[in-house]
Amino acid sequence: MMTEPIIAITGATSGLGQRVAIEMATRGAHLVLTARSKSRAEATENLIRESVPAAEVNFFYGDLSLLRDVSRLGQEISDAYPKIDVLLNNAGLHAFEQRITSEGLSEMMAVNYFAPWILTHTLQHSLKAAGSARIINVASEASRNHGELKLPEDLINTSDFSARGSSEIYGKTKLLNIMFTAELARQFTGTEVTVHALNPGFNVTGLGRELWFAPILERVLKILHIGNPRKGADIIIRLMIDPKYQETTGGYFNVGTGNPIVPVHPGGDKEMQNKLWHDTRLVIHQITQ
């Protein structure tokens, strides 16, 4: 990677995104981070500067559950950074009850799937201008528990679900991330931009923050050395800097080994990937116009 690469990261005020931001700051990256909360952004910037006092860190604020806000946020970043070397779509949400946004979408679908789609689309010119840029989407093997995929119905489904039923909806959003990655790679054919998705494994930072006992469970799992988020951060960083991942595009890679994973059906179906792309564009157009 070039000297002082510009790296844009969503979900950098906690968990894997925060760990990746700190690590990449130590490697000399210029960080472009998104946040909803200014207090959490300030706390994250302080953590980064504890390791790298002279780190270049810039925050852009927005609500990733609102498509119009994501579009505005992406445009602000694009205007400020005509060239971006890496985009990490990391922000994610596992909600345990249905919440519908003011735009009429399921919050979990909006944050986990529509937000990275729109942000990537809005930043595409900055990524293409950088040369050898990388787009990295955090997916999950939770995608194997997606139930049955129905397009375009699942994109706009706002039916209620229980805490137990939330796993299927979450898995579906992660399946869409994998499918989006493969189609996006084809959309970038002829450019120097590569696109990959990854499974970060089970991480204690990804536990349901909405569960009252989540902090207690996180402490127990840390004591037992289960769900170490360093492993998830490691595969993300490898996809950012390892030259071998620049040689291919449209892949889905596993935590630990860094080896490719064959996604669950219909994750690898090109026709369904293309249908998802067009259905997504239609939904976004209907909401944002």
SSE topology sketch:
Blueprint lengths: L5 E4 L5 H12 L3 E6 L2 H14 L4 E6 L5 H14 L5 E4 L17 H24 L3 E5 L27 H22 L6 E6 L14 H10 L5 H13 L9 E4 L15 H19 L1
Parallel strand pairs: 1-2, 1-4, 2-3, 4-5, 5-6, 6-7
Helix pairs in contact: 1-2, 1-7, 3-4, 4-5, 5-8
Outline the structure in words.
With 289 residues, this protein is α/β, with parallel strands linked by helices. The chain has a single domain (6-282), classed as NAD(P)-binding Rossmann-like Domain (Rossmann fold, 3-Layer(aba) Sandwich). The protein is built from eight helices and seven strands, in the order βαβαβαβαβαβααβα. The chain has helices spanning 15-26, 38-51, 67-80, 107-130, 166-187, 214-223, 229-241, 270-288; strands spanning 6-9, 30-35, 56-61, 86-89, 134-138, 194-199, 251-254. A seven-stranded parallel sheet has the order 3-2-1-4-5-6-7, with helices on both faces. α1 (15-26) links the parallel β1 and β2 (30-35). 44% of the residues are buried. The model is unreliable at 204-208 (pLDDT under 50).
Spell out the key features of this protein:
single chain; about 290 residues; alpha/beta; Rossmann fold; seven-stranded parallel beta sheet; 8 helices; about 45% helix; about 10% strand; SDR_fam
